């Protein structure tokens, strides 16, 4: 059920570095992208705002979250160094149904949709990279839907550990529980059965 390649794409690190090395024009454009700094807890994007840019996470960690009408928050995804974060299908603007927050001090490179459209028009490689990134996003979405429909809570947690093991120590457990669609207590019981209880909260 798990597949770590779902978090891999031609536009993601480390493949992106190779693309920049092989394509000087793309590398020159990349160097012009503005860098933004976000403190832990600071939003990159709020629900209802227009989505007109994507971000490449240079350092740090962010989470994507939905907020229900009843005020319950559910984490949809986590994005760490070397990955892209945004919403919708770049470069088509839409209104965001999600919030995106930094989970820790985070630095991103910001690529606006207007700039992305210029890159697409002038650099044929960019469309290939964008198409592969969208493929990866769709594959991850399908995988997550299958896990929510077919796996019980413990199996979902094991899948999360398999897929995102490198992030486990950086994500507070209540955010992991939210991502899995279970309560903090339920996750604590699962971790106890697995022999993983070490006093984290």
Automatic annotation (TrEMBL):
Start and end residues of each Cyclic nucleotide-binding domain: 35-116
InterPro entries for the chain: cNMP-bd_dom, cNMP-bd_dom_sf, RmlC-like_jellyroll
Listed Pfam families: cNMP_binding (PF00027)
Name of protein: Crp/Fnr family transcriptional regulator
Organism: Aquipseudomonas guryensis
């Amino acid at each position: 059920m798990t597949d770590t390649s779902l978090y891999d794409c031609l536009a993601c690190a480390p493949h992106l570095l190779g693309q920049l090395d092989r394509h000087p024009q793309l590398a020159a454009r990349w160097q012009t992208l503005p860098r933004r700094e976000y403190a832990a807890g600071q939003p990159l994007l709020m629900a209802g705002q227009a989505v007109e840019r994507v971000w490449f996470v240079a350092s740090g960690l962010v989470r994507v979250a939905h907020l229900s009408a009843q005020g319950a928050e559910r984490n949809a995804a986590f994005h760490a160094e070397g990955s892209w974060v945004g919403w919708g299908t770049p470069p088509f603007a839409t209104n965001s149904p999600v919030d995106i927050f930094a989970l820790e001090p985070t630095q991103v490179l910001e690529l606006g949709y207007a700039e992305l459209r210029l890159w697409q028009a002038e650099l044929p490689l960019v469309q290939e990279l964008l198409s592969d990134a969208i493929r990866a996003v769709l594959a991850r979405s399908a995988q997550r839907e299958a896990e929510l429909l077919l796996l019980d809570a413990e199996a979902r947690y094991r899948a999360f550990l398999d897929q995102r093991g490198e992030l486990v120590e950086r994500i507070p457990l209540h955010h992991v529980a939210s991502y899995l669609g279970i309560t903090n207590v339920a996750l604590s019981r699962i971790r106890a059965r697995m022999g993983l209880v070490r006093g984290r909260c």
